[in-house]
Amino acid sequence: MKAATPAYFPATLRSFWSRAEPVLRADPRLLGVLAAGSAISGEMDVYSDLDLILVVRDTAYAEIMASHVDYPARIPGLLSAFVGHHVGEPRLVIALFADPLVHIDFKFVTPDALARRIETPIVLIDETGDLGKLLAAGTASWPNQEPQWFEDRIWVWFHYGAVKIARGELFEALNFLADIRRMVLGPLAARRKGRDQNAIRRIETIDPDFASRLQATASLYDSEQAWSALFAAIDLYLELRADKPPSIIHASAEQAVRTWIAEERKARR
Description:
The chain is elongated. The chain folds into 2 domains: 11-140, Beta Polymerase, domain 2, CATH 3.30.460.10; 147-267, Up-down Bundle (Four Helix Bundle (Hemerythrin (Met), subunit A)), CATH 1.20.120. The protein has helices at 11-25, 38-41, 61-65, 130-137, 147-167, 170-192, 203-206, 208-214, 223-243, 251-267, and strands at residues 30-36, 50-56, 78-84, 89-97, 102-109, 116-117, 122-126, 139-140. The N and C termini lie far apart (68 Å). The protein contains 10 helices and 8 strands. The chain is an alpha/beta fold. Strands 3-4-5-2-1-7 form a 6-stranded mixed sheet, sandwiched between helices. A two-stranded parallel sheet has the order 6-8.
């Protein structure tokens, strides 16, 4: 059964898909192909990549996985491909294609993986008609964190970041600030808008006002700017925490860390 390519695919991805679809459809080891990520919401533009989920027959999975890094080479225009070990996902192959230049992710799964998932992908190819049924029977749940998860970690993390600034490890400090935006401030800002806690993705669109204020948590390679960014991050966390407070607020840890940070900053001025 052939599903129509979504009309909101940008021209870059429509061009890629016109080359990829016949190759994927011709592989009898595949039950079908799904699209995840921004393809689900339709929030795609000419800069979007394409997250493909290749659903492999159980009997063929071992064969495909033995050389899955080479699979994208079946499609014309491949420039480079590698396995997603750096994100802890050995089933993922990340590829770059030419004419036009596009980033394509290939994730290889068996049908049972569709039962429990973080989102419900759209169907691009469903050779037997079974994939739609499997998706309908399964459940999707984004791994959103509870308020307590953030509170249990945040003061340890803020102390860690402050140590990096105090020691003069500013590149480490800048990485820390980015991590706090990705793991804490972005997810909590998305929660405020009723969205899934998907890191810092599209915060400029989801909440432009908050994105503007979030600029205060970014720093150049300068210790005083880094201290200011850290204090801004703390202030934003406290504001976001108040939206949906955790059952246990670690007030003693908060006070100790904030006092220590203030004293360290003052000592280095």
